[in-house]
Each structure stands twice: as structure tokens, then as C-alpha cells.
Amino acid sequence: VKPLGKEYQSILAKGLGEERWVDRYENARKRSGAYSSGCYDSIPYILLNYQGTLRDVMTLIHEAGHSVHSYLSNKYQPYQYSNYAIFVAEVASTFNEELLFRLLMERAESAEERCYLINQRIEDIRATLFRQTQFAEFELKIHEMGERGIPLTAPALKEYYSELNRDYYGKELVIDPVILGEFLRIPHFYSNFYVYQYATGISAAFALVDKLMKEGESARESYLEFLSSGASKYPLELLEIAGVNLRESAPIQSLVDSFKTLIKSLEKEISSCK
């Protein structure tokens, strides 16, 4: 997080150190997964099981993005404007992931290591941009079915989910019948129209990392202002403060282009390993 400046580094170092934001150890009855939580008059808290793998490191920097966002919003905003919307929350977390990925790529010493990192990043984007958009499309469809009075039966939902998988992954992918019930295990569907915000969040985050790398201090100051703004403005206005306009398709198209570039890079690295 060095590109984000001394204040951000200091907050995070203190939080991961002496203030002990993170509950990192496995424990009986401890909830699985990773979460950042807290309240207005407390430090942020990060709950995860950390074992030192690359995925654990990525998860930690992701949740730390949420926590510093909360820290700065609480510090600079009154209570009523401190609790930022989900639409901007995933920007702060995936922004940190992309910073870490670029640092690890710079330090990678072999083609095998670069292949591993690139493959992981491709999967991250697939899961966050494409998969969450697929989920959002499914969610919209079932709401439309309900509005038209169409019964939401298991066969009908499975059939539509099958169509979506064919649309998103093409004829080359064999669709196992078991996957047709995947939508039943997505808890986010109980929080209506939540999942699409993962896709918009990662698109904004990539655009802002690119902006930071190109413009330096001015982009950093804009981004920190965004993190400190809580819910003082509407989400799209907050993102404009940071320096990205999600009223246009350019940030999303840019991420799709980055995805294609990563695939080409992986193919190149694999060729060099042969």
C-alpha cells in the first residue's frame, strides 16, 4: 500500500500491529470466511483464519481495505454519514488486491511464479466480474418472474440457471446437472440486488489503480478523500471524487480488456515454461 502514502501505511501498520484489528486464528464455533466489521466508536475488526497462503494474504489485504475505509469514514464524518454504501465498499477492498497483485508480479522471479499469480488474478476477475454479473442477471429474472405471477418452482429456476451458464460459458463447457442448484447456496440473494455491486466495484477499483499509477500524488489525494467521505454523497458522486465515472461503460470495458491481456500474458508465460 506504499502508493497510498504515509497516512494510509501508518493506519494499517498500527491496525495490524498494536491495535490488533485481526482475529487470525481458528477457533471452536468461529464462523468461516472473512469479514471486516465494527461500529462508529470502535476500531474496525477483521475476522478470518490466516495460514499464510497467497489466498490468505489476498484476503487479508482485501479486508484491510474495508477496515481502513471504515476507519477514515468514522474519523472524518459524523455518525449519520459514516456508514458507506455497499456500492463503494467493494472498491476499497479490490483496490488493495490489485495493488498487491502488481507488486507480486514485479517481484516474481520465475515464469512458474508469474503463471501462478496471473492464473489466480484471472480467476479473481472471472469470479468477481463475470460470475457476479451472471448471479445478478439470474436475480433480476426471478424478480421479474414473481412480478408476472410466474411460479418460482425449482425446475423453472434450474432451467433458467442452465441457460445462463450456457450463455456465459459457451458450448465448450460441459454443464454438470449438479451446478443447476448452485443458486440455492448464494446467501446474497436474500439481500436483494447485492451481487452486481461486486462487478461495479472491481471495475472502479482497477480504473483507480491505473489512475494512481499514472498520476501519483493527485490521484492518491482524490482516492483518500473518497475513503474519508463515508456516505456524505451518493455513491456515484463519491466515485467521481475518487476519479472514476461509472455512469459510463469505459471502466467496465477497461477491466474486460485487462482480463483479455492477462489471458494472453498467461499463454505467453506458459509457452516459456515448455
Ordered list of secondary-structure elements with their pairings:
Layout: H1 6-16, E1 22-23, E2 35-37, E3 45-47, H2 54-76, H3 86-107, H4 111-147, H5 154-169, H6 196-215, H7 217-227, H8 235-242, H9 250-273
Parallel strand pairs: 1-3
Antiparallel strand pairs: 2-3
Helix pairs in contact: 2-3, 3-6, 4-5, 4-6, 4-9, 6-7, 6-9, 7-8
Distance between the termini: 35 Å
The CATH architecture classification is Orthogonal Bundle
* Backbone CA Rg: 20 Å
Name of the CATH superfamily: Oligoendopeptidase f, C-terminal domain
* Biggest beta sheet attributes: 3 strands, mixed
What does this structure look like?
The protein is an all-alpha fold. It has a single domain (2-273), classed as Neurolysin, domain 3, CATH 1.10.1370.20. The chain is built from nine helices and three strands, in the order H-E-E-E-H-H-H-H-H-H-H-H. The chain has a three-stranded mixed sheet with strand order 1-3-2, covered by helices on one side. A hairpin with a 7-residue loop joins strand 2 and strand 3. The longest helix has 37 residues, at 111-147. It starts with 5 loop residues before the first helix and ends with a helix.
